[in-house]
Design brief:
Chains A, B: May play a role in DNA repair. It seems to be involved in an RecBC-independent recombinational process of DNA repair. It may act with RecF and RecO. The structure is a homodimer. Chain A is of the alpha/beta class and about 200 residues long. Chain A has two domains: about 55 residues, Helicase, Ruva Protein, domain 3 (Orthogonal Bundle), CATH 1.10.8; about 90 residues, Dna Topoisomerase Vi A Subunit, Chain: A, domain 2, CATH 3.40.1360. Chain A contains nine helices and six strands, in the order ααααββαβαβαβαβα. In chain A, the strands form two sheets. Chain A has a four-stranded parallel sheet. A two-stranded antiparallel ribbon of chain A has the order 1-2. In chain A, strand 1 and strand 2 form a beta hairpin. The radius of gyration of chain A is 22 Å and the shape is globular. Chains A and B meet through helix 1, helix 2, helix 3, helix 4 and strand 2 of A and helix 1, helix 2, helix 3, helix 4 and strand 2 of B.
Amino acid sequence: MKDQEKHAGAVSNLVDQLCRLPGVGRKSAERLAFHLLRVPESEAYALADAIRRIRSDVHYCKACFNLCEDELCSICQDPQRDQTRLCVVEQPRDLMSLEQSQAFSGVYHVLLGRIAPLDGIGPDQLTIEPLVDRVRTGNFVEVIMATNPTVEGDGTALYLSNQLAEYPVQLTRLARGITAGSVLEYANREMIADALTGRQAL
Amino acid sequence: MKDQEKHAGAVSNLVDQLCRLPGVGRKSAERLAFHLLRVPESEAYALADAIRRIRSDVHYCKACFNLCEDELCSICQDPQRDQTRLCVVEQPRDLMSLEQSQAFSGVYHVLLGRIAPLDGIGPDQLTIEPLVDRVRTGNFVEVIMATNPTVEGDGTALYLSNQLAEYPVQLTRLARGITAGSVLEYANREMIADALTGRQAL
């Protein structure tokens, strides 16, 4: 800590705070701090305000638990979206990835996590109850499980499909197989097995 | 921009601000933004405040132009430091590197840049006048040029040595040669040449 004492408190304080960010080590934090000292004052203040605002203004959509600043998120408010197809994702950022693909025009439900017994996360900590309510009271014809293709994501999808089995909706999950642009030579065993199991008619 | 419209304005605003940081692309910025949404609110606010404070509280030391929050930086205020040896560096972060080595007990002078005609930076934009004043009025016996070992850093050191030639101080520069822990096999020509030119008696 000797080296930090030589520095202005505000600088080493900012370096400490930046170090807490994921993927930011001490050297990067110092570089960022010196960058923020060098840019126009307004730019540094804009970043500080943006951080404050993300915590003061952003909350979860009352319907789908996506991030938003109003009661409902822009997707739930959009009359153009297909209100009969519901896509279930783990996190708002998964929703963002799906939106970027522009391949889905329905609405979403964000679980805000996945069932992970080893991390002490059970179904009660997720937004599963509101999801079941939506499916019971809504006019959905299909619920797409778009949880991550991991043990915990798959387990969560399985749990949800049991919870939703009694309702007259079609339950689907994202296709698995080889990825566009990849080469078979480097595909691993699970990818090949998924691709064979789910093979499609030409 | 389609994907961003789907997001709360505060989130995409923060992502935009984070993208302006050096080494932070859009994906990293999104990851950081979601991290800041997840951490305790106090931690996000602490980062925002730290950024504000680095601009509102930090300024340059009146004597050496290091960063500080008082009139004088902690090094200039320290009565233990050798006031007869002055080390000239380009930037506050260079000073920090030298301090971390704990090999220098004198005081510093920060130029706040280097002479770089191609970038339009001349001697007048640096703190050279205050440096010459300090050397003229101080009791220094040695001035160490610790500018970077680059064309511009060397040029700046040469310019300074001309400016300071009339004063009764010894002018030195940092030693150059092979680096501790390196292997000769991978040293480049300049390193070997510097090491041979500056060879020391055993």
